[in-house]
Amino acid sequence: MVRAAGYAQRVRIDQEQGCTIATIKDVAKAAGVSPSTVSNLLNAREHLMHPDTRRRVLEAMEALSYKPSRIAQQLRGAPNPTLGLIVPSVANPFWGSWAAELETASHARGRQIYLCNSQRDPERERTYVEQLWADGVEHIVLSTSLPSLDHLRPAMDAGVQIIAFDREQQETDPPELLNVSVDNEGGTWLATRHLLERGHRRIAFVSGAIRTVSRRRRLAGYQRALAENGIPLDDDLVPASPDLGDADSGTLARRAVDALLALDDPPTALVAVNDMFALGAGAALREAGRPDIAIIGFDDIPIGSLVSPALTTVRQPLREMAEAIVALATEPSDAEQRYPLVFPPTLVVRASTPRRTT
Amino acid sequence: MVRAAGYAQRVRIDQEQGCTIATIKDVAKAAGVSPSTVSNLLNAREHLMHPDTRRRVLEAMEALSYKPSRIAQQLRGAPNPTLGLIVPSVANPFWGSWAAELETASHARGRQIYLCNSQRDPERERTYVEQLWADGVEHIVLSTSLPSLDHLRPAMDAGVQIIAFDREQQETDPPELLNVSVDNEGGTWLATRHLLERGHRRIAFVSGAIRTVSRRRRLAGYQRALAENGIPLDDDLVPASPDLGDADSGTLARRAVDALLALDDPPTALVAVNDMFALGAGAALREAGRPDIAIIGFDDIPIGSLVSPALTTVRQPLREMAEAIVALATEPSDAEQRYPLVFPPTLVVRASTPRRTT
DNA sequence: GAAAACTCGTGCAACGATACAGTAGTTCGT
DNA sequence: ACGAACTACTGTATCGTTGCACGAGTTTTC
Questions:
Q1: In this complex, do B279 and A124 lie within 8 Å of one another by their Cβ atoms?
Q2: Does the domain made of B184-316 have the CATH classification 3.40.50.2300?
Q3: What pTM value is reported for the model?
Q4: What is the pLDDT of residue B164?
Q5: Which of A116, A173, B56, B229 could cross-link to B31 by cystine, CB 3.0-4.6 Å?
C-alpha cells in the first residue's frame, strides 16, 4: 500500500545527463508542427496532411529515433499486445515445451509472450495475473489445473480475457472463461488399453497428489480402461502422494515404486500421470532390479525419446493447441468455430512397454 | 509504425457496462477529500492528515477495491518492479531450471519475473528487450552467449540495466554491462580431468556449433586439460556441427556419435558441452551397442539423476548465481562487493563415467 | 458573389497519479 | 496583540499521447 516517494528525481537526473528519450513534442518541434500532427501520422491519419509535412515529420522521427511511449498510449486505453502465459513450473520440461510451442504460434502472429512461473501457488497465480493486468495485458493463458478460478475474479471482471489450458471445463466456471485441453481421460484410456493389449493385467497408476482437474481425468481414464476389460480396481495399485511433484517428481516416483514393489502381488506395468513421473519410476525400477516392468508416460516430452529404453507415451498435440489458443486470443469469434476446445491425444509407442513375458 | 485507431472506444464500452475500475478521483469523492490527499496517503505521507481523514480514505479505498494504476504511475516516472529474464530456449530443461531458480530468488525479495524466450535469435532478443523497456522494466537478466550485445545499445542508453548470464566478460563490452557466469573453462577442465583420472586417454568433445562465448570457454577447458596431461589434440574428436541445438540436441548428438564411432580409433569417453547433448549421446551410444563409453555432461539438470546410468556432470551453482543477480538488480553497490561475477563449478560424479576397462 | 466544401492543419481536454506551492484556520511565543 | 509556526488540507502543472472540435485559408458550386 505504502511506497517510498521520490522516483521522479531519478528521471530528472537522467535528463540532465542527456539520456532523454525523444517525446512526441520533440518530434513536433523538430518538424515545425504541432504534436497533434505527429500523432495523426502515427495513427493512420496521414490523409489529412500535406505530403511535405508528412516527410518532414518522418525525418524528424528518424533523426531523434523516436518511439511512442507505450505507457502513455496505454494510459489512453491502448492495449498491450503482449500475451501473458502462466505455467505451474518452468523447471518441468513439459511446461517448457508448451511455452516454447505457444511462443512460436504467438510469434507467427506478431505477438510476444511474457511467461510467468506460478509454482502451482494460487496466490502467485493471482499476483502474476494482476501484474500482467497492471501492465495492460489483455489476454492471459493460464496453464493451471486448479478446479476453482475464483481468485482471479477481480481481473476477469476488469476485462482481462483468461484462457485456461490443461483444465477441462467445470460447471462452476464463469461463462467468459475459455478452457483448452487435451482429452486427459481419453489419453490414459489409450495408455492403459495399450498395456492390456501387451498382455498386462496388473497395472498401477503412478502420480503425485491427484488434486488437479487434469490428474483426476487421467486417473478416471485408467480406471475406465480397466473396468471395460473386467479388471477390478485395486487401491494398492494407486499409491497416494501428498505432493504434486514437478522438479521433484523423481523422488515421489521412487517412493511410489518402492510401495508397489513391496506388495504381495506387484504390478507388471505402470501408467504414469506424466513423463516426468515415468522417467522417475523407470530409474527406480532399474535400481530395484526390475527393468522388465513396463512403463507408459503422458505428454511426450522431447527427452522421452533420448532415454533408454525410449519412453512409450501419450502425445499431447501441443502445436495444434497453441495455434488454437493464439487464434482465440486474436480473433475470438472466428476461432471459436474453427477449433475444438478438447484435443485428441495420440499413442506414441516406443521401447518402454514390452509385451508381458512371465 | 502505423496502427489501427479507435481503441478508446473499447474502454468506453466497458465503462457503460459498469466494469469501470475505481480511480483515485472516485476514492477522493467517496471520502470527501481531494485526490491529492489520497495520493498523500498512498505515498507514505500520512503524517500530514488527520487520523479521521486517513480512516475515511482507507475505507473508501476498501469499499471501491481501489488499486492505483501502475500505468499512470509509470508515466510519472515510477519504475516497474518486475525483473525481465530472457533465455535462449525454455524447452531446454537447463534454462527452465535456471528460470525457476531466478524466480525463487527474485520472489524472496518481492519481485516478480517476466520470462521471455529468445530462441537464440538476436532480433527476438532485441524486440523482447524493447518490449520490457516499453513496459518500464528497469532490470533485464539476459541469458545469452552472444559475443556482441550491440543490438541492445538503444535500450541500454535509455537506462535499462542489463545483467548478462552465461557469458563471461568480453573486451568490447560497455562498462555498464554486468556479466554473471559459471567458470565454463574450469568446468570442462574438471570434467576432462575426471575422465583422465578414470584412465581414459582418447576423449571426444560433443557439442552443437561452438559459436557462443560459453561454449568456446568449455572447449578451451577440455583442450587445456588434455594439453596439461600431454595428450595431443585431435580435431577428429571434436565433430563440427552447424546448429547450436536446444530441443533438437538429441539429433545433433546422435550425428556426432556416429561420426566418432566411425573413426579408426574411436574415443573411450565423451565430454558433452551440456547435459542435453550428454543424454542424446548416451542414447546414441546405447543404440550403437557401445554403452561402455563414458559420458560426462555439464549443467546438472534434474533429469540427469533420473536416467540410467545416472549422468556424471559439472554442476552450475544456479542458486548462488540467482541470488547474486537479484542482489545486483536490487542493491547494486552493495552486491558488487559481496558476490563474485564468475562462480566455481563442481563435479557431480554418478554412474555414466566408469573407469576405462579395455 | 456568397455559401458550401475541401485542405491542412492546431488547441484543448482527457487518461490516472503525483509533487510541490499555496492557503485557510489554529496555536504559540513574547 | 501580532507575526511565526504549525496543522490539514487543496489547486495546479506535469508525465506522453490521443481524438475531437475548431479554424484559417483556398477552391468549388449554383
A1: no
A2: yes
A3: 0.91
A4: 94
A5: B56
